[in-house]
Design goal:
Strand content: 15-25%
Helix content: 25-40%
Strand order of the largest sheet: 5-4-3-2-1-9-8-7-6
Structural class: alpha/beta
Shape: globular
CATH architecture of the largest domain: Alpha-Beta Barrel
């Protein structure tokens, strides 16, 4: 298993994410520029197209392409065969034209021959059905055969291209997202559990197998949580999610170590999907040189900009510095019910938003839009309309603008006085089938709290609940159903040291084994907030609200009795009417706030803005229009208009707009989807 674990099997997360000094970083790949480009799949096109591609890339300012992501069948058409000639020509072509290469290992999609010859490499779903080739990601992360073939192709790629002058970075696999409930997984799941628990007695205690006669007397009796007659053991499901993340990480680390051995001077990455449930990213980023992510907000989503900002904030926090936007769409995608294009200017706006929030690479899936295959209607930097289409014209404009600002912002950092606590184990445990409300969705709650800060024009980092929080003036906990003792102690220490905490409902309910803590909430947290007794949880229906002082609560409410004998316990808002009439909805004890419902968006934003102000947190700019975002990256101020109307924004002081080259004093005018990048 990767990572060190304590006696509970929980990974030690107390150390901050940081780059080891002797490890390569994103700066080694960017070389003072913003990387601009995307996935390039030339094997889909005749070679005469390659020269045309290079011409268009150079016109657009493309300085980086990712090769080989889905090329395994092309590279190894038969077991053990190697067809590198086409890739040799491409690598040389890129180098001759000054375009760097992010070379991917092709292991996310094995060739059809592998599944036919080695059925053990194919994953099975929880009903036992085989996931066949014909799509992608059809591999069992636990299969020794798959791992052997993956290591072999990675070894040969690294040996051949590790010293190629075009190579700038390694990209391992792609969007790790495979679950497997098959026989191969059953063997490695048992091994993982034996490493974690040591004995069956310890496992039975952790899983609470006295319930429903589930006690295990032999390791061979334990299976992945396959289809069952009724609800599955929630701790077994929780451990299976932990195990799956660890198995995928093992696959990544194995390939990473191979390429690192051949080119230790080059950084290595693998791309996360936005807030993907299947990977404990806090654990993963400790193994990555570069943190990269794919971001695909819906152009029609009124909160698309905020959703993008959330993923950017999370990725920046995981990277502890600059990060890589590995994939986005230049236009429509192909996997929504209705796939809308991006209006004129939106691609530029969202790309520059990513740079403002720390991205040193702005890349796309993909360079040229495919004419065949499942993603032929997914946009490319060069669309079906070709170089005369609007998409490519906008790409050229963006490439020129990124070249103007790159030297001023690359390798600089954004800082925040606010941290949002987020943790995958809490998400996994809280999503169990037997929960009190299926209307309560962890990602939805996190988005709501981040949105409240975003609409209050407050920027935030994300942090693991066991990280050092001392640098933050305000810590926000949207919801953490599961908290370890170490996490609770860390939060308490933060408040005792003078920090301000705002905590949402259904937090601190369970320990690391999903065992409900005495009293329904950890005693230390109840004491922190001044809660004497948490009598009952009162979840709300989808269309139901709870009236409170000055606002309405949604999703949830709680029957709380406060500790009257404790000084300083204040009910900042109470429920009005119904079963909870007069009971506290928002409770404060000193600098610790507890919010027992999800206030409507405006009310939550006002609440957090007020608490932030009291904690000494300031905005980047005051008096911003509602749809305008201001982010400071190092000394550079980004002002972004997410609205469709022209606006004037007050920017005290004198600046130079790095995009237009014009001098700006006191105010800046932004067109629809306009951006100003201001250097003092």
């Amino acid at each position: 298993m990767t990572g060190q674990t304590d006696q509970t099997g929980q990974t030690d997360q107390t150390s901050q994410i940081s780059q080891t000094p002797d490890r390569p970083t994103l700066a080694d790949a960017t070389r003072g520029r913003i990387l601009f480009g995307g996935d390039y799949n030339p094997e889909q096109w005749p070679e005469e197209t390659w020269q045309e591609d290079v011409r268009l890339m150079k016109e657009a300012g493309v300085n980086s392409v990712t090769l080989g992501v889905f090329s395994w069948a092309k590279l190894e058409p038969k077991p053990g065969a190697r067809e590198f000639g086409w890739l040799d020509r491409l690598m040389d072509l890129m180098h001759a034209n000054g375009i760097g290469v992010v070379l991917a290992t092709p292991t996310s999609s094995p060739p059809p021959w592998m599944g036919r010859l080695h059925p053990d490499t194919l994953p099975r779903d929880e009903d036992g059905r085989t996931e066949w080739w014909g799509g992608r990601q059809h591999f069992s992360h636990s299969s020794a055969t798959y791992r052997r073939y993956a290591a072999a192709i990675t070894e040969d790629l690294a040996a051949r291209y590790g010293s190629h002058p075009a190579l700038r970075m390694w990209h391992i696999n792609n969007e790790y997202c495979t679950y497997d409930w098959g026989d191969e997984a059953a063997v490695t799941f048992r091994r993982w559990l034996q490493d974690k628990y040591g004995t069956l007695d310890a496992l039975n205690t952790a899983w609470g197998t006295a319930f429903w006669s589930q006690g295990y007397g032999d390791w061979e009796e334990i299976l992945p949580p396959r289809h069952a007659h009724y609800m599955k053991n929630p701790t077994q499901v929780l451990d299976f999610k932990r195990y799956t993340s660890d198995m995928l990480l093992e696959c990544y680390v194995a390939e990473r170590d191979i390429v690192r051995r051949h080119s230790p001077h080059l950084p290595v990455t693998s791309n996360f999907m936005p807030m993907w449930v299947g990977q404990d990213a806090w654990k993963w980023v400790r193994e990555e040189d570069v943190v990269s992510v794919d971001v695909y907000p819906d152009p029609r989503d009124p909160f698309g900009a905020q959703n993008g900002a959330l993923i950017q904030d999370m990725t920046r926090s995981q990277a502890r510095g600059p990060w890589m936007l590995m994939e986005q769409a230049a236009g429509p995608v192909n996997w929504r019910g209705v796939n809308h294009p991006k209006p004129h200017g939106l691609n530029r706006l969202w790309s520059l938003q990513a740079v403002a929030r720390g991205a040193d690479a702005v890349c796309y899936f993909q360079w040229r839009q495919s004419r065949q295959g499942a993603e032929k209607f997914h946009s490319g930097m060069v669309s079906h309309a070709g170089e005369h289409g609007r998409t490519y014209r906008e790409i050229k404009q963006l490439g020129a603008e990124l070249a103007c600002i790159g030297a001023e912002v690359t390798d600089s950092h954004s800082t925040s006085d606010i941290a949002i606590l987020h943790e995958w184990n809490a998400w996994w445990a809280g999503a169990q089938d037997g929960r009190l409300s299926h209307e309560v969705d962890y990602p939805q709650v996190v988005r709501a709290w981040h949105r409240a800060l975003w609409e209050a024009h407050l920027t935030a980092d994300f942090a693991h609940p066991e990280h050092d929080l001392a640098a933050y003036k305000l810590v926000v906990v949207p919801q953490l159903y599961l908290l370890t003792d170490a996490a609770i102690d860390n939060i308490l220490a933060y408040v005792r040291a003078g920090g301000t905490l705002v905590c949402g409902f259904l937090t601190g309910v369970a320990d690391e084994d999903d065992r409900v803590r005495a009293g329904g909430m950890d005693e230390r947290l109840r004491e922190l907030f001044g809660i004497r007794t948490l009598h009952e949880w009162w979840p709300l229906d989808a269309d139901e609200t709870a009236e409170c002082d000055g606002f309405r609560g949604t999703l949830w409410s709680e029957e709380i009795e406060v500790e009257d004998s404790v000084a300083g316990v204040v009910a900042e808002a109470v429920y009005k009417g119904g079963e909870l009439d007069g009971l506290p909805a928002v409770l404060r004890k000193g600098r610790a706030w507890y919010v027992s419902t999800l206030p409507e968006p405006a009310a939550l934003s006002d609440l957090l803005a007020g608490v932030a102000s009291g904690a000494g947190v300031g905005r980047v700019l005051d008096g911003l229009p509602a749809q305008v975002e201001a982010v400071r990256r190092g000394d550079v101020l980004f002002v972004l208009n997410h609205g469709r109307e022209k606006v004037t924004v007050e920017v005290p002081g004198a600046y130079r707009d790095l995009i237009s080259g014009e001098q700006v004093a006191d105010s800046v005018e932004l067109e629809r989807y306009g951006v100003a990048v201001l250097s003092p």
